[in-house]
Specification:
By secondary structure, the protein is α+β, with helices and mostly antiparallel strands. It has helices at about 85-100, 125-140, 165-170, 200-235, and strands at about 20, 30-35, 40-50, 65-70, 110-120, 150-155, 160-165, 175-185, 190-195. About 30% of the residues lie in helices and about 30% in strands.
Length: about 240
């Protein structure tokens, strides 16, 4: 049985509606909200500040720490248990690696930049929404970056390659499903994150990479608009 139509009526290459805003938490050094479909991510930046304990300090560059968590009633299914878990730690780690690629951490020796990503509402693609929100928040905090990072989940639903899977597509039961989160840098167009849950062949993967880069360019426009809108309001 072929997957012929997406549950929400989108074309196979379409992203869900997006919204982003910078500077949403006034007490933070930088912050942002990024929404795609029903998935919402808030990112808050603290720092750069002196790193403790002292033995963790690096005199050559600062460090980036990411703390990702989903709120207890954010998911489509059962209540999510609060506190750190294996999935949250894994997403925190890959988010840190994807963003460190573009940050000039050598300008902050012996310092730490903490980014807290909270997901109050989830309908798939939470790690990608978190990365996109965190990039805006870091720019809002004035952290030197070579470029922004945008992320999207592409994948396979039965015999179709699709962009920006939602929960209904991830849970599709009438055929194979593959979820491929990808993060792309905004200027150099490099991939800073690539994961996969499921199976695709080489040709499908190459096509998904192309689709992801096109989609991330669209997300980057939303990120830049959020930053420009804040600047224009302050101006």
């Amino acid at each position: 049985m072929s997957f012929k139509k997406r549950p929400d009526g989108r074309d196979f290459d379409d992203l869900r509606p997006m919204e982003a805003k910078a500077g949403v938490i006034k007490s933070a050094d930088g912050s942002a909200m990024f929404k795609i479909g029903k998935t919402v991510a808030f990112a808050t930046v603290r720092g750069p500040r002196e790193l403790f304990p002292r033995f963790l300090k690096n005199p050559k560059k600062g460090i980036l720490r990411i703390y990702y968590q989903m709120m207890p009633f954010s998911g489509v299914g059962d209540r999510i248990r609060p506190g750190p878990n294996r999935r949250a730690k894994e997403i925190s780690m890959v988010t840190e690696k994807s963003l460190s690629e573009v940050m000039l951490l050598e300008e902050f020796p012996n310092s730490v930049i903490d980014v807290f990503i909270d997901i109050p509402q989830a309908d798939a693609g939470t790690r990608c929404a978190g990365i996109s929100a965190a990039a805006i928040a870091l720019a809002d905090a004035g952290i030197p970056m070579k470029e922004l990072v945008a992320a999207v989940a592409v994948g396979r639903v039965d015999d179709k390659l699709v962009v920006d899977l939602d929960y209904a597509e991830e849970a599709y039961e009438d055929g194979p499903v593959a979820d491929v989160p990808i993060a792309v840098t905004s200027r150099s167009n490099k991939i800073s994150l690539l994961q996969m849950d499921g199976e695709v062949d080489k040709d499908q993967m190459m096509e998904l990479l192309k689709k992801a880069k096109i989609a991330c360019a669209k997300i980057n426009e939303v990120q830049k608009k959020a930053l420009k809108d804040k600047y224009e309001v302050q101006k």
